[in-house]
């Protein structure tokens, strides 16, 4: 039987939603692995909208679910409908929407709050012992919801990638109570509890 995987999106666009390359990579790999995928997003207003051509805020309002539907080709459900009983795992692609729309880390750091539906989903999957995948900046969600969890996003320093944000280092240095396990980018994992 095919694994059933929920993918939670945070909008559409690296600076104010889900990072399109990461979301696409997750979906391609799940498809190649034979998984049945259902995408979800919260039906909320984005924190703000960024003009990706200019890299600056735009004076408009957008809805996270509506914007996420762009990536899902319309095949998406309101996050409130996500049931842990219907899925074997959940994955949160990165993009600043995870830090702006799924939680408030982008503006509040370690004192952030996590969207109630996102928090409930994380706790439900953890409670059932089901895998939780967190890409790029989205480990901040686990860092806030599960103090003391172990996150792995890559290596701490590599001159080949100068200027790239060191997300895990940032998560640890922002005062979250998490453990960081160093791994090369080809050998990563997130660990919550027994995972």
From TrEMBL:
InterPro entries: Class_I_gatase-like. Gene3D superfamilies: 3.40.50.880. It comes from the Eukaryota. NCBIfam families: PRK11780.1. This is Zgc:162944. It comes from Oryzias sinensis (Chinese medaka).
């Amino acid at each position: 039987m095919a694994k059933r995987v929920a993918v939670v999106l945070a909008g559409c666009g690296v600076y104010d939603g889900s990072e399109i390359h990461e979301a696409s990579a997750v979906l391609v790999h799940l498809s190649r692995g034979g998984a049945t995928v259902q995408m979800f997003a919260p039906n909320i207003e984005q924190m703000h909208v960024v003009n990706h051509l200019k890299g600056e805020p735009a004076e408009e309002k957008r809805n996270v679910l509506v914007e996420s539907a762009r990536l899902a080709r319309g095949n998406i459900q309101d996050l409130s409908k996500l049931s842990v009983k219907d899925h074997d795992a959940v994955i949160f692609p990165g993009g600043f929407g995870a830090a702006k729309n799924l939680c408030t880390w982008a503006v509040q750091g370690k004192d952030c709050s996590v969207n109630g539906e996102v928090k409930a989903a994380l706790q439900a999957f953890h409670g059932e012992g089901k895998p939780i995948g967190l890409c790029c900046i989205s480990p901040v969600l686990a860092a806030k919801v599960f103090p003391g969890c172990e996150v792995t996003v890559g290596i701490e320093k590599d001159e080949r990638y100068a200027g790239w944000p060191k997300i895990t280092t940032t998560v640890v240095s922002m005062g979250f109570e998490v453990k960081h396990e160093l791994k090369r980018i080809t050998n990563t994992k997130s660990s919550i509890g027994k995972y």
